[in-house]
Amino acid sequence: MGTREPPRPGCCVIARRRGRKSRRMARAARALALARAAEGAAGPGPGPGPGRARLVLLPPGGGARPDPHGWREAVAAAAGALQAGGLVAVPTDTVYGVACLAQDSAAVRSIYSLKGRNGAKPLAICLGDVERLYRYCHVNVPDELLRDLLPGPVTLVLQRSEELNKDLNPFTSLVGVRIPNHPFMRDLARACSGPLALTSANISSHGSTLTVLEFQDLWPQLSLVIDGGPIGDIQSPECRLGSTVVDLSVSGKFSIIRPGCALTPTVDILKKKYGLLPESS
Questions:
Q1: Which residues in 199-234 are b (16+ Cβ under 10 Å) and which e?
Q2: Is the Cα dihedral 133, 138, 142, 145 positive or negative?
Q3: What share of the chain in percent tops pLDDT 90?
Q4: pTM attached to this predicted model
Q5: What angle, rounded to 10 degrees, do the helices at 183-191 and 68-83 form?
C-alpha cells in the first residue's frame, strides 16, 4: 500500500502565509533602516538621552494583540523617559509629535529649544481621557460636546485652570487640549501622573512629519523615539495638516484657529448639533 501524500494547503492559506511573511519582511526592513539611521544620528555617550535617542518599534494592533507585552514595554519606556525629564517622539492620529511632561518647566523649555520655536507660541496639553480635562481647564461647553470631538484629530482651546504649570504658556490664560484617537498616546497619557505637553515633531515652520525618518535630525536631542509606522498616506499633503484647532473659550461661540484635517465635521458638530456661532458673527 503506497504512502499517501499529505493534503496541500488551499490557495487562501498560502496567501495568508505569504502575507504574514511579507509583513515580517517589511517590518524587518524597517527595523534595519531605523537602526542604520539611528547609528548615523546618535551622538557620543552611552544609553538614551540627549545625544543618543533610543528607538522602539511599536507592535501593531494596540495593546490587545498581537504582542501586548511589547506594547506595554513601549508605554513603560516612554513614560519612564518622560518622568526623567526627557523628550519623546510619539505617533498620534494626525502626525508625529514630541511630548514632555507639561508640569516639568525644564522639559518644556527643552521642547522650545528643540524646535527653535518662538517662545510666544503656545504648546497644547495631551490627556488620555475627557474626564481628566476638567482638572486643567475651565469648561463652558456641554460634556457631550467634548465627547463628540474627543478623542479625535481636534485641539480644543479652553480657559486654563490654576492646576496647570504656570511656566507653560505663561503669556495666555488659554490652553489647547488634545486627546488623540491613537491607542498608544492614550495609554501613555494615562501612565503619566500629569498632562503631557505635545507639539509636532519638526523644526518650527517646517512641514509636519508622517514617519520617524522624516525628523531624523531631531533624534540626537530626544530621549526616545516611538516608531508606530507611517501615519496615513505620506504622499498626501492633506495628511500633514495636523489637528483642527478650535477656540471654545467664549460661551456660545467658536473660533477656528487652524483649519487642520477635520474642519468640516468639527464645524458641523459645533453649529448644527450645539448651535454655537462663529465668533465673528
A1: bbbbeeeeebbbbbbbbbebbebbbbbbbbebbeee
A2: negative
A3: 74
A4: 0.83
A5: 50
